[in-house]
């Protein structure tokens, strides 16, 4: 039978306990969740015996969760202790912060004097190997120089090199922080070596004059007959001494890259007056195989020489017969692989023709020469190469170059209104000189073409849209 048994609401006992433990009231929501299912009276099954109703009731579900409460209480105490420790540590750190800052600043100041050594990598063994390589190159160059030019100066270079080699051996064992000093010593030794290679002041070449000493102010400064439409091209006087006097202008179109027309004037008066000109088409258009590429063109012995369209081939157009000869220039870079590039690159200047008292030349660079300038003397009728010389001058490190009596001269940018002839290489001796400083006036920045004319001893420059000429002095 069912025996109604009335129990007091469990929360009433819990309230008594909680009132006695006021400091745990913050856990009341948790405990209420434990008893949210015990509401009102409960009815259970029982048995009637001897006039009484007996039943068994399990009231553990209403027991106070003492273990759980105790665990939570311990965690609260632990958290309070940890919080107090952290607050104490923060307070201590705040007091010590000025001292820590001062210590870090002191360490930074002490390390700053070694920053140069760190950023320069002076303490790496790789740097020692690089210095060793420079020593080997110097040893080889000095040995060659002593064989070709035995003198007291070259003997002194050998002795100085031996001293440096001994210092290097000590550095492998003792102190690698002297690398910068050794670098400076090697640089000085290299400069001394180059001085021995420099063309002598009393130099006389096959033309019976020495190095160029000076260049005049511009004798001709004239806007191109094409106006300012074509800033790249070439111009000059017929360069073969035995040919009739005539002047020519060759502008590049199609993005200052290609051309096919050469404008000729048969007298200086016609050229200056921009009259009585003759336009000669060396190709059907500027986009065909025989069209002109780049501003390195030249009129020599009644033939026009230029780089063939988009190839490493040389073209020769005969003005009399109108025939074109093509010849591959072996290994030559083209299409901006090795242009003149000092300060700013002049596009499509990979192959450059020049003429002097010894004949027709072509100036270029190859992969084999690592981009250094190469000179080849040509047979002007067949374009066959009759001789080749390699220099140690990187072609992209110059503005332009030209030949005078077997000597290569190179220029570099000095300012908007001035170039400087700074380098010479003599094909007769293999000597070079990078101590020149000959000024060359100009009107604007860019130099598209610069060449020497053995017929009148003048330099001709295509200075963007301006045509300029100078006298040379030796």
TrEMBL record:
PROSITE patterns: OLF
The keyword NAD appears for this protein: no
Highest rank taxon of the organism: Eukaryota
Record localization: Secreted
Coiled coil regions in record: 128-199
Domain Olfactomedin-like: 206-474
UniProt main location, coarse: secreted
GO biological process: signal transduction
Secretion signal, residue range per the UniProt entry: 1-40
Gene Ontology CC terms, in alphabetical order: extracellular space
The keyword DNA-binding appears for this protein: no
Entry keywords, A to Z: Coiled coil, Secreted, Signal
Designated name of the protein: Olfactomedin-like domain-containing protein
Organism: Albula glossodonta (roundjaw bonefish)
């Amino acid at each position: 039978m069912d025996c109604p048994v009335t129990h007091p609401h469990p929360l009433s006992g819990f309230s008594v306990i909680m009132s006695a433990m006021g400091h745990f009231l913050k856990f009341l929501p948790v405990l209420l969740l434990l008893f949210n299912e015990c509401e009102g009276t409960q009815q259970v099954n029982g048995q009637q015996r001897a006039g009484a109703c007996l039943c068994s009731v399990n009231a553990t579900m209403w027991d106070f969760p003492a273990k759980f409460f105790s665990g939570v209480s311990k965690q609260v105490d632990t958290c309070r202790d940890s919080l107090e420790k952290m607050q104490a540590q923060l307070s201590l750190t705040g007091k010590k912060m000025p001292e820590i800052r001062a210590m870090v600043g002191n360490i930074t100041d002490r390390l700053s004097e070694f920053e140069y050594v760190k950023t320069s990598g002076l303490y790496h063994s790789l740097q020692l190997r690089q210095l060793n390589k420079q020593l080997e190159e110097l040893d080889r160059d000095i040995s060659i120089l002593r064989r070709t030019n035995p003198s007291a100066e070259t003997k002194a270079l050998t002795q100085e090199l031996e001293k440096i080699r001994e210092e290097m051996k000590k550095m492998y064992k003792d102190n690698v922080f002297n690398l910068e000093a050794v670098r400076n010593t090697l640089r000085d030794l290299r400069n001394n070596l180059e001085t021995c290679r420099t063309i002598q002041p009393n130099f006389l070449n096959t033309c019976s004059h020495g190095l160029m000493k000076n260049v005049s102010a511009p004798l001709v400064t004239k806007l191109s007959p094409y106006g300012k439409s074509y800033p790249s091209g070439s111009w000059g006087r017929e360069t073969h001494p035995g040919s009739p006097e005539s002047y020519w202008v060759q502008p590049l179109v199609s993005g200052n890259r290609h051309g096919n027309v050469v404008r000729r004037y048969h007298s200086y008066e016609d050229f200056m007056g921009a009259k009585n000109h003759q336009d000669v088409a060396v190709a059907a258009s500027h986009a065909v195989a025989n069209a002109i590429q780049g501003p390195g063109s030249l009129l020599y012995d009644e033939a026009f020489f230029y780089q063939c369209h988009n190839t490493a081939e040389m073209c020769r157009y005969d003005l009399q017969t109108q025939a074109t000869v093509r010849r591959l220039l072996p290994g030559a870079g083209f299409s901006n692989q090795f242009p003149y590039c000092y300060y700013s690159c002049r596009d499509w200047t990979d192959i450059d023709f020049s003429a002097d008292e010894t004949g027709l030349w072509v100036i270029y660079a190859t992969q084999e020469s690592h981009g250094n300038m190469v000179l080849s003397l040509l047979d002007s009728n067949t374009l066959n190469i009759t001789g080749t010389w390699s220099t140690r001058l990187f072609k992209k490190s110059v503005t332009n170059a030209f030949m005078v009596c077997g000597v290569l001269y190179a220029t570099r940018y000095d300012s908007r209104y001035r170039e400087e002839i700074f380098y010479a290489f003599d094909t007769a001796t293999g000597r070079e000189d990078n101590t020149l400083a000959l000024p060359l006036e100009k009107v604007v920045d860019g130099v598209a073409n610069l060449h020497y004319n053995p017929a009148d001893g003048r330099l001709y420059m295509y200075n963007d849209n301006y045509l300029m000429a100078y006298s040379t002095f030796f």
